[in-house]
Amino acid sequence: MAAYYLRMNLGRFRLFCKSFSRPHHKMRSRHRPGVAYDGQRIMKRLTIFAIVVFLVVLNYFFWRTEPTGGSHGVPAKSDLASFYTALSMFEIDNGRFPTREEGLDALIHRPGTIPEGAKWHRYLDADKLPNDPWGRPYVYEIPGKHNPDGYDVYSLGHNGKGGAEAIGNWIDPGPVVVVYTSQDEVYAEPILKDFEKQTGIEVKTVFDSEAVKTVGLVNRLLQEKSNPQCDVFWNNEEFRTRQLASRGVFRDTDPWAPLGYRTRRMVINTNFIKAGAAPRAWSDVTNKIWFHKVALAYPLFGTTSTHFLALRQLWGDAAWQSWCRALAANDPFVVDGNSVVVKQVARGEAWIGLADSDDIADAQREGAPILALPVTPETLFIPNTVAVIKNCPHPEAAQQLFIYLRDSKISQRLVDARALEGATLAPSAAAAGLAVNWDQLLRDLEPVTEETKQIFLR
Predict the structure, then answer these.
(1) What is the number of alpha carbons within 13 Å of residue 192 lying toward its C-beta?
(2) Is 312 exposed, middle or buried (0-12, 13-18, 19+ CB in 10 A)?
(3) Which CATH superfamily is 262-382+436-455 part of?
(4) pLDDT for 380-408, tens place per residue?
(5) Quick check: do 72-80+89-173 and 262-382+436-455 share a fold?
(6) Which CATH number fits domain 72-80+89-173: 3.30.700.10, 3.90.420.10, 3.40.50.11270, 3.40.50.2000?
(7) 8-state DSSP, 105
(8) Cα dist from 71 to 13, 78, 172, 249, whole Å
(9) E strands along 147-193, which residues?
(10) Where are the domains of the chain?
């Protein structure tokens, strides 16, 4: 903007100077020859000249003294928010932040210190790191001078010298709310952006990773319980929310609420299996005719883990263990996440998948030849949930987002996007699926998780 005004005002100055190069007779009045009119005209031009100089100087000093980068500070702060999310996800997967030597490049390229097969993945959707608005690399320091228990990420500012001109993750950005969410980014981000526009509150978001799903965020919230960093936990399932509530992670009053629902379904590739020949019950997928034809997500994480726990409650431990061992013996594809399950079924690599309804709907929208099998008494209904963290750093902003996400319009928006099946879960609909004793499920979590790990050991 400063450059625009400078060019415009210099253009006016050139026109002014050009006027003095005109022949003297052209500056005389046609009505009253003499110098009086010439003097008036010169005074007008001198006045214009003074105004032009004033505007040029004003714009120059405004540009030089813009606080925290002025208009350039906006994209810098946006980049810092992206780094915050990416570094948080890196920590969830790897148990630490990148070292000073690894730097921010560790968000795009796997460091040599992290072995192949680890949870690392690309955390920024880019082939190279962004530069700041002045074309310089961002600086990463760990431990940070401003954040000695964490890291500093900053731009050196327009002068390239840092100091008071630096734009970093320690600068108070105004009203902020920090959200941890396992809702898919493609669905959550537009909703949170609209919240920002409506309220002026900046949303800093930490998403889960496909491999460990909600478990990674849950473990982080438990670790941070004595020093909360998160304000709102938006979860795409119910069980882990109940687990955190039982550990006192959420506030005492109005701690969490459901938000629409999805279901766990069997999905088939209709090019290989007709609906009439498909398994009718989850227990049927252990039949030898489905050898190496079934795909499921690793059952220690996400909704697959919850569903396995609920099926054990329905069938009893002995029958459940027998089913798990028969399923493992049937050589299924055990993959990282339900979306991967659905993709394998869509490609025909697997004929049957155990997945979530939103992933199935997403693939159907793209024309995949797949079909979700009907709800049965073994179907798990999965509400989204939203919760406020106890002693969170931004309680007022957290409450605003809590109310915003509970609005029925938000649930319907997620239904329209096929991220949810329904905006509200009526008791009659829930009765068609599994009736879960959540308290018992929480008590069984650790021992059953260990049993599952032994059966599906990778």
Answers:
(1) 24
(2) buried
(3) Periplasmic binding protein-like II (3.40.190.10)
(4) 999 999 999 999 999 999 999 999 999 99
(5) no
(6) 3.30.700.10
(7) G
(8) 27, 12, 17, 39
(9) 152-155, 167-168, 176-181
(10) 2-65, 72-80+89-173, 262-382+436-455
